[in-house]
């Protein structure tokens, strides 16, 4: 057997080397199609931070960008900076499974998520940018009698709140999504499902880029690679933000940092009841269109849709321990795949292409925290846990209103920080569809 | 899979363990004296440290005993394990993974 040792110094092993043609020489032939096109139009500029802003938004993900967008659009506030410690929308915005729905149980949740869904329905026009929003519906499967009761109750609650919702029997589930295993001889048979036809998916990068483009057009500074390292406090006010790119004075501060919120609130000496956990997702290789909707299952712990390109996109529950590492344990992926194959036998031969993790900020009642803080001019948006993407335009709207008016928007009011003291929790563990 | 060293059983696979959140959270000495805010902090608020975090673990598929661990929440690496009642160990050096971005 002959092998070539790549590290051999023996001249006999040397691979003949042909010099490459001089590509810089205009007269030499070019490989057709190999020229790089002109760089496309930049969607936003990358200014250096100014010395002061009326509002400093911390977090350049979907929520921070949407907040900046509606500050400009709805309130005419444009002396704003969006600070991002990494790159634009590189955190949870880039790592989620892009599911959009509003079929939550409680009135407070239905109000804010439905507000968001209505904004999604007009977002492409608002942003003037394609976001590939595809309303393909979501099935939330019920596998036990208790699941069925809870699901029917949630459908009724949704209908009362003006959220489109139906209860489907197993044969109707099969019509909506033929590849779901509805046979009765599996460990967790499908006893039915709730169906929200207006639910859907969108292209997360395009959403972020669309918002960033509009924000930049409005004259707002998006400042990437700018990590907040401290705050300048004056009594009950924060007068400045210390960053890796210098100190920035501010009229108001809006936190939209999701899984990293506690790092910021610790600097402020402010306690928030969130725990950061890794949440993983994965995609398969590109496949023909086989999955026409979104399927979620609480009991077997998986949610699946098929992206426009053709990958099956799946997620599950969080890793149990607290973590900031943007990765999770592989045995979680293994369980998730087992659940997916149980529900969709057709996936058995699909290959796992890629897995990744984001850091989600979970709260004790699986509902977000949006509103004021004990500081006069610091506003808090966090705790969206595993479900923040769907809220992007809705919370941007509501949070901007809260910041502009110094009082919680009616949709934000139930999600105040002090609900953990008053005990008026918004317990969405059931309707969150996959446990936090 | 990460191996976790149970203080009684030795190193076992991560799936044998159950997470119990922040360690060293004492039950209020005088529960009746607590204000609503203090109760809220006892019930709902826990540290969410980025870096070395003292937390409770149970070897639920083994000896079923609880223990405490110091773990880096960025690298997920266990820095120390110790039995309940023991004080939080002092590390020779703070982990670097949690200190920077």
Give the end-to-end Cα distance of chain B, rounded to a whole number of Å. 25 Å
Class of secondary structure makeup of chain B: mainly beta
The geometry of chain B reads as globular
Tell me the strand order in the biggest sheet of chain B. Answer: 3-4-5-6
Q: Can you give the mean pLDDT of chain A?
A: 92
Let me know the number of strands of chain B: 6
Number of helices of chain B: 1
Span between N and C termini of chain A? 56 Å
Cα-atom radius of gyration of chain A: 24 Å
SSE string of chain A, helix = H, strand = E?
Answer: EHEHEHEHEHEEHEEEEHEEEEHEEEHH
Largest sheet of chain B: 4 strands, antiparallel
**Helical element count of chain A?**
10
CATH topology of one domain in chain B: Folate-binding fold
> What proportion strand of chain A?
15-25%
The general outline of chain A is: globular
Order of helices and strands of chain B: EEEHEEE
Secondary-structure topology with pairs:
The complex is a heterodimer of chains A (436) and B (101).
Chain A: E1 52-58, H1 62-75, E2 80-83, H2 92-95, E3 99-100, H3 107-127, E4 138-142, H4 145-160, E5 166-168, H5 170-176, E6 192-196, E7 200-201, H6 204-217, E8 221-223, E9 228-234, E10 237-243, E11 246-255, H7 261-267, E12 275-286, E13 294-297, E14 302-306, E15 311-318, H8 330-343, E16 352-362, E17 369-372, E18 378-382, H9 392-405, H10 419-422
Helix pairs in contact in A: 1-6, 1-9, 3-9
Chain B: E1 3-6, E2 10-13, E3 18-22, H1 36-43, E4 52-58, E5 66-72, E6 78-82
Antiparallel strand pairs in B: 1-2, 3-4, 4-5, 5-6
Structural key phrases:
heterodimer; A: 436 residues; alpha/beta; eight-stranded mixed beta sheet; 10 helices; globular; disordered N terminus; B: 101 residues; mainly beta; Folate-binding fold; four-stranded antiparallel beta sheet; 1 helix; disordered C terminus
């Amino acid at each position: 057997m002959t092998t070539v040792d790549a590290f051999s110094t023996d001249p006999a092993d040397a691979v003949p080397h042909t010099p490459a043609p001089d590509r810089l020489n205009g007269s030499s032939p070019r490989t057709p199609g190999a020229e790089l096109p002109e760089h496309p139009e930049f969607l936003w500029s990358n200014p250096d931070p100014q010395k002061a802003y009326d509002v400093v938004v911390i977090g350049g993900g979907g929520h921070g960008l949407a907040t900046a967008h509606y500050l400009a659009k709805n309130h005419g506030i444009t002396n704003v900076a969006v600070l991002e410690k990494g790159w634009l929308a590189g955190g949870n915005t880039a790592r989620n499974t892009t599911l959009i729905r509003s079929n939550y149980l409680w009135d407070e949740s239905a109000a804010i998520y439905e507000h968001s869904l209505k904004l999604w329905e007009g977002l492409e026009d608002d942003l003037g940018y394609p976001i590939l929003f595809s309303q393909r519906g979501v099935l939330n499967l019920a596998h036990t009698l208790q699941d069925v009761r809870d699901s029917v109750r949630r459908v009724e609650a949704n209908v009362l709140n003006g959220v489109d919702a139906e209860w489907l029997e197993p044969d109707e589930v099969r019509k909506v999504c033929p590849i779901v295993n509805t046979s009765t001889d599996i460990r967790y048979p499908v006893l039915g499902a709730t169906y929200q036809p207006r639910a859907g998916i969108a292209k997360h990068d395009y959403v972020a880029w669309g918002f960033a483009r509009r924000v930049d057009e409005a004259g707002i500074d998006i400042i990437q690679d700018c990590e907040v390292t401290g705050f300048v406090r004056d009594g009950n006010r924060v007068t400045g933000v210390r960053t890796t790119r210098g100190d920035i004075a501010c009229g108001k501060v809006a936190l939209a940092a999701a899984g990293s919120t506690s790092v910021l609130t610790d600097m402020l000496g402010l306690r928030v009841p969130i725990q950061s956990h890794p949440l993983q997702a994965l995609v398969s290789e590109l496949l023909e269109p086989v999955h026409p909707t979104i399927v979620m299952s609480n009991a077997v712990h998986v949610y699946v849709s098929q992206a426009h390109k053709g990958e099956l996109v799946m997620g599950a529950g969080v890793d149990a321990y607290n973590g900031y590492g943007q990765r999770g344990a592989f045995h979680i992926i293994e369980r998730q795949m087992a659940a997916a194959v149980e529900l969709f036998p057709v996936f058995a031969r699909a290959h796992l292409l890629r897995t990744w993790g984001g850091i989600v900020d979970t709260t004790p009642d699986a509902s977000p925290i949006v509103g004021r803080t004990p500081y006069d001019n610091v506003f808090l948006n966090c705790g969206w846990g595993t479900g923040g993407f769907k809220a992007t335009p809705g919370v941007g709207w509501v949070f901007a209103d809260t910041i502009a008016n110094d009082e919680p928007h009616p949709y934000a009011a139930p999600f105040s920080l002090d609900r953990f003291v008053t005990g008026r929790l918004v317990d969405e563990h059931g309707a969150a569809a996959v446990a936090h | 899979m990460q191996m976790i060293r149970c203080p009684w059983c030795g190193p076992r696979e991560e799936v044998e363990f159950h997470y119990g959140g922040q360690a060293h959270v004492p039950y209020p000495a005088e529960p009746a004296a607590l204000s609503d805010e203090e109760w809220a902090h006892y019930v709902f608020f826990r540290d969410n440290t980025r870096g070395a975090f003292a937390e409770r673990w149970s070897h639920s598929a083994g000896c079923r005993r609880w223990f405490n661990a110091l773990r880096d929440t960025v690298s997920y690496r266990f820095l120390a394990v110790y039995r309940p009642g023991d004080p939080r160990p002092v590390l020779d050096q703070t982990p670097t993974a949690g200190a920077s971005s």
